[in-house]
């Protein structure tokens, strides 16, 4: 298993976490509340945690070759929800 993490500074972390989880809850196995979420997608598993200052995103994939695609899917969706601010993603 390969893992990747990004900590994205935003005062709206809880809102974005819940929007993303609700968005995918009709298609994928999803569990969430205001501060944490787990979403099982075909590319892998996303776990999100919201604090007052940041959204932490942990991704786990079985195939390391799929990690760039998984990053792109997460970023694209979160940027759509956060259209009023610019989010910065640095994956480690």
TrEMBL record:
Pfam families: DUF2218. InterPro entries: UCP028291. This is 2,4-dihydroxyhept-2-ene-1,7-dioic acid aldolase. The lineage of its organism: Bacteria, Pseudomonadati, Pseudomonadota, Alphaproteobacteria, Hyphomicrobiales.
């Amino acid at each position: 298993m390969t893992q990747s993490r990004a900590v994205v500074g935003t005062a709206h972390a809880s809102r974005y976490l819940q929007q993303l989880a609700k968005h995918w809850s009709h298609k994928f196995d999803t569990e969430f509340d205001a501060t944490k979420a787990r979403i099982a997608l075909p590319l892998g598993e996303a776990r999100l945690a919201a604090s007052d200052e940041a959204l932490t995103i942990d991704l786990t994939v079985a195939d390391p070759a799929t990690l760039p695609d998984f990053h792109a899917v997460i970023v694209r969706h979160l940027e759509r929800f956060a259209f009023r601010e610019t989010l910065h993603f640095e994956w480690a």
